[in-house]
Amino acid sequence: DLGRLAPPLGATDVVVGIAASGTTPYVHGGLVWAQDQGAQTALLCCNPACRNDFPLVIALDTGPEVLTGSTRLKAGTATKMALNMISTGALTLSGYVYDGLMVRVRPVNSKLRRRAAGIVATLTGTSREEALDLLDAAEGAIPVAVIAARLGVSMAEARRILERHRGILREALEGGASVKENR
């Protein structure tokens, strides 16, 4: 199943296998295959006694289920919480979060446009109306709007600064200050 992914798995990918017991052969097979493709792997299970050869094992100690064999209860809930933490951390490290705000929201409808404007207003200290103008000028890109406003640069320059910093707003703002000072 993993072999059918497009683009194919490689060294820049992380595959997290999920098996409540930690012993499911299908999950183990997928993780071994992913490792063979160069991907980083982790096993998430709810069995603290789980032992295997994977580089990272997240073994949650949820104790026995109230209904034996019904892993959708405690194990399922704990797994969902762990996956929420993993995905939130990954999004944060990838630059999708800045100061607790989702700065990569794409304002494709009125609700998301209002949310994006609120984020821009919060991060730039501007009014909601000014934030909407910044968003329009940035073609909806929150990080570009924030960089332009905070560093006092054009939208084109804000895009270049963001690109130089791998799309990560925090790095762009910290590294972009020197761009403005050197002008």
Summary of the model, kept short:
This protein is mostly helical and 183 residues long. It has helices at 25-36, 74-93, 110-124, 128-137, 142-151, 155-164, 169-181; strands at 14-18, 40-45, 57-59, 97-98, 101-102. The protein is built from 7 helices and 5 strands.
List its traits.
183 residues; mainly alpha; two-stranded antiparallel sheet; 49% helix
In words, what does this structure look like?
The protein has 183 residues and is mainly alpha-helical. It has 7 helices and 5 strands, in the order E-H-E-E-H-E-E-H-H-H-H-H. It has helices at residues 25-36, 74-93, 110-124, 128-137, 142-151, 155-164, 169-181, and strands at residues 14-18, 40-45, 57-59, 97-98, 101-102. Helix 5 packs parallel to helix 7 (169-181).
Structural class: mainly alpha
Give the CA-CA distance, first to last residue: 53 Å
Query: What spatial order of strands do you see in the largest sheet?
Result: 1-2-3
Strand content is 5-15%
Order of helices and strands: EHEEHEEHHHHH
Kindly provide the radius of gyration, computed on alpha-carbon positions and rounded to a whole number of angstroms: 22 Å
Mean pLDDT: 91
Count of discrete alpha- or pi-helical segments spanning 4 or more residues: 7
Low-confidence stretches: none
Number of strands: 5
* Main beta-sheet strand count, sense and barrel state: 3 strands, parallel
Q: What is the 3D shape?
A: elongated
Helicity range: 40-55%
